Amino acid sequence: MATKKKKNLAYKLDKGLSRLLPALGTIALALLVGGIIIAISGNNPLEAYAQMFKGAFGSKSRISETLVKTVPLMLLALGVSVAFRSQIWNIGADGQFTIGAIFAICVTLYLPGENIFILLLSFVAAFVGGALWGGLSGFLKAKFNANEVITTLMLNYVAQYLLAYLIRGPLMDPNGGNNPQSASIPEAYRLPRFVSNLRVNYGIFIGLAVLIFIYYFWRSAYGYKLKLVGASNTVAKYAGLKVSGIVLFTMVLSGGIAGIAGWTEVFGAQYRLLDNISSGYGNLAIVVALLGNLRPIDIGIASFFFAALMSGGNAMQRMTEVPYSVVDIIQGLIIVFVICRTVGQSNGWKQWIAARRNARKAVTAGAAEEDGGEEDNG
Amino acid sequence: MEYAVELRGITKRFGSNVANKQVDLKIRSGSIHGLLGENGAGKSTLMNVLYGLYKPEEGEIYLRGERHVIDSPLKAMELGIGMVHQHFMLARPLTVAENIMVGTKSKRGPLLDTRRVMREIQEVSDRYHLDVDPAIKIEALSVGQQQRVEILSAIYQGADILILDEPTAVLTPQEVQELFVILRKMREDGKSVILITHKLDEIMEIVDEISVLRDGEYVGSRVMGPDVTKDELTQMMVGREVLFDFSDAGTLTEPGKVKVALRDVHAKNTCGVEALRGISLELHEGEILGLAGVDGNGQKELAEVLTGLAKVSEGEMLYNEKPIQNRRPIDYINDKIAHVPEDRQTTGIAMNFSIKNNLIIKNHGAKRFKKGPVINYDVVNAYAEELMEQYHVKATGRNEIIKNLSGGNQQKIVLARELADEPEFLIASHPTRGLDIGASEYVRGQILAQRNKGVAVLLISADLEEILQLSDRIAVIYDGRITGILPRGASAEEIGYLMLDNQKKEAPHGNQEKEKSRV
Fold it and tell me: Is B227 a residue whose pLDDT tops 90?
């Protein structure tokens, strides 16, 4: 029993598969049910999926569009994953994204001169904006134990309407007709593209940089503290951590990353502020984060998949009779299946059932959740 | 002779881990049967198989000569098997009657039949001298009373085979005696009782027969009689001879200077009730001060104020002659105050963390564990391996999630972590609770070793035997006050009396026997 298993390739492979398979299963199941729905609506699901695939990867420009969508989605999902790992349910990524974008654009539009420092400053401002927005919820939770689900959700609306006001008022583009939009950033600030006629741009590097940062963050002592708070406040306190401080820090970091997502969207894709600039990425990011098991690399893959689903869905709508709503349905199904999976993994419901049977402990065979982040360091 | 229960060739695996290997067990009708074994020996697993919680891979279960397949606790209850778990399954805001009614059918259809149930409960309670008021809420009951509610519930639901998992672990010596009165009454009525335990002393006087499990295997059974000795059973259980006596494991030469001093310390518990009402104590270097008392008399709060987890509302705490009350928990850790907490599963370890990550919850920021800002898991891994070996932790490896370990192994992890950084003051709350003999022996040895190294040790325990074995002085706590401080060699009776200070209880009996059995 006490034999120590040496980590070998097979073990790692097994571990990797055990992470990959549930995610693939979830997706396959969602596509299957989605296919049935397409069939019921009188269309050929295979044809629809083929068009969807072509729409996502069919040409250079399609791949470019998919990648353009991947970046904000990935950043937002990474942001929420930080909070989720510490068991803080930040669902305000949209708001943090929006405030980040507003802060960044204010820096470029209002500060004099056009140089690299302004650009860097706008990046910092985006982080600060998102961090403030997230940190506000974090502060309320740490100080008054206010439920972060409610505060982050409410702050989404505040951010949304603040943006709506700004682009119709103080920030409105003087040369933009009467359109609700801000002036665009100077051309020099635009993130460079790889190919001039494709929208995919250097924002991808920012996304990857943040992904790598988060990957190492979970291996750092700070990341460890966050995970410990997520595992148990009581244990964290016993271990000498200041839980309220960590809660605040978590929300600052989580919001800040969402702010960076706002920055890449403005400087890489939109170049200005528009209504609903976050385009609901924030809610999708929650699904992406959960589908990716809150692990940075998995999140990267999951966000690419979701981006493909979105850009492919557009093409599918154009080429077939199947409406884009099918994509929403598939996304919804993935949410449902991911939740089923998380519920299935947690012991809570089993214990509940077991308790009702007057049992002490539910059998948890195979359902053990790992604390993650350190599994690759053997 | 007909057996109430006969298990044949039971094998139960958890993954690659074999918890029960071809176990045979026979329980005679109308007997009290002890199921003895160390932690992790497979006792609870075996009984959970009998109770229908686990499905065995192999083996057959016979009840009163007939073969049955028990696939759920519901089925087990139908067949007259009741089980009282170590952790009680009672809804605290509900009354005794309401708790017992859960899972029974009302004769009035959708309406509850509370009055009839209450009357019937009262009848059962009177018959077995359980002394339980069906109308009282669970939260108003002591642990011992809650246990009686569980027993009552099982009997009420028709159990004639009752399994008790470590029933004495949470009871005072007096309460143990009360429990035994109930069990004897059940035996008189022809019911069979199975006591799961690793504490031989406590059940020797009551059991008719003892079966021993070791490492998941059935070792043998002994019908109790004058020829059956404690030594023999212990040897069956551990597989080797065990030294119980710590009395000469390094004697206290001279108490060192005062390490910790408490002056009239008051503190409130989480509900705002004053739990410490003027504690004054002195603790010297190289001394073990045992704090005896029934659970819930302020022990937990005392440990908490000494580690910064709770606030001192009045009074003063001195450590190395400097006041230390009301600082941040991290300050106490940095001052080399180690704490083995009372509730390891909610405080001592993060259940979803791996072993290695649990070993570094306090010192993950230390330089030696870091490469820049990143935790250097090569070093952590080596550290974890070393501690796991040193403390004989049974696990598949350092990456195993700690909730998969047995309680004893979890406690070893806590202890390993707390002692690794050379503490100067050790607060050990119930350090061997739920541990097997081998592990307890080891843990106690470690505590003594710390004392001999000059560490000041506050040993909080509800286990009198442990207190008597290890302590250089014994303080007794009752209702947030120290009711007396006794020298080494005080009798269990004296301590027991102080533990129940003010409570008009009859003088304890049966403790003399316990004293003697300390070999």
Answer: no
